[in-house]
Amino acid sequence: MIKFLIKRSLLTLLMLFGLLTITFFISRISPGDPAALAAGPDASAKMIEIIRKEYGLDRPIIEQYLIYVKKVLQGDWGKSLHSTHEVLIDLVVYFPATFELVLVSMSLAIVLGVPMGITAAIFQNRFIDHFIRIISVSGVAIPMFCLGLLLQYFVALQLNLFPLGGQLKMMTDPPEPVTHLILLDSLIEGNLEVFIEALHHISLPALSLSFPALASIIRVNRSEMLETLKQDYIVTARAYSISLFRTVAIYALRNAMLPTLAIIGLRFGWMLGGTVLIESVFDWPGIGLYAVDSVINSDFEPIIGTTIVLGFMFMITNLIIDLVYSYLDPRVRDQI
Q1: Every domain range in the chain assigned CATH 1.10.3720.10
Q2: In whole angstroms, what is the distance from residue 166 CA to residue 312 CA?
Q3: Is the torsion defined by CA of 124, 125, 131, 136 positive or negative?
Q4: 79 DSSP β-pair partners
Q5: 141-147: long-range contacts (C-beta < 8 A, 24 or more apart)?
Q6: pTM (2 decimals)?
Q7: Fewer CB near the terminus (10 Å): N or C of the chain?
């Protein structure tokens, strides 16, 4: 297990380095002059040149790359041309909101998706199975940003059941930051009013973000459960009058969950990327909205920093999934 962790850690560092390199060169060769955007429309050519020299944009691209890598290794992720803030500080400020949104969305997808997949498999080709399959197909067919806009229009504007966006109301003071996750911090503080308000605000964006993952989990879990329920040991367990709940929850689900865990890991990474769209739709103050503003302003350092953080979270999630996978399947554990 230790050897596996060391190998995966080195591979993660190598992939992060590759991700940093690719993102750096793509951002540098993309059209647009970030120095001119930072200087403003009324800036003179001399002012633009001063900004270009200040941020090292006048140097050859290879030299810019080597300087940037050296600074990143030293903990300096550069400054934003648009806000003039340190990128690392901005990422620390914006990331908790994104992580909270993704955590709630994935929890919602797992809590709903796994039981629905099991139910669809048990009641195969009955009404409830067809209904659940409609949900799973809809999750794949409907883009998450489109679902978000529909929920905003019908649920927020027409029915006035949920707010249009944001984490809290403008006049609400957030709880004392302990974990920097508003839902958790409000519980730690014992402020149920803020907790309910934050839960109210996160509901629509979390539902929109979780819907594609929910659909994938349902489809994979249903398919695996159908195969597992046909296995000899399941048929034997039922023949010995072991209850359906015990047979499904203890014996069948453990094997059926292995491919489901794989899709959860993949969907978590895609969900991190999907926050860019959802945060823009719901004005959610997270790293996705920060990335959109950076792209609009051709702000290179925040774009690279955002990509590294999201890529790192995706890799760590898949490492955790692999470890859980090895725990559930002794054959994988022996290979490790």
Answers
A1: 94-335
A2: 26
A3: positive
A4: 86
A5: 142/211, 144/208, 144/209, 144/211, 144/212, 144/274, 144/277, 144/278, 145/208, 145/277, 145/278, 145/280, 145/281, 147/207, 147/208, 147/211
A6: 0.84
A7: N
pLDDT at 326 exceeding the cut of 90:
no
Q: Please state which of the four CATH numbers 1.10.3720.10, 3.90.550.10, 3.40.50.300, 3.20.20.70 is assigned to the domain occupying 94-335.
A: 1.10.3720.10
**Tens digit of each residue's pLDDT (9 = 90 or more) over 70-99:** 888 888 888 887 777 888 888 988 999 999
Tokens 């990327």 map to which residue? 273
What is the C-alpha to C-alpha distance for residues 255 and 27, in angstroms, rounded to an integer?
A: 44
pLDDT (tens digit per residue) in 126-179: 999 999 999 999 888 888 889 999 999 999 999 989 998 888 888 888 898 888
Whether the Cβ atoms of residue 290 and residue 283 lie closer than 8 Å to each other: no
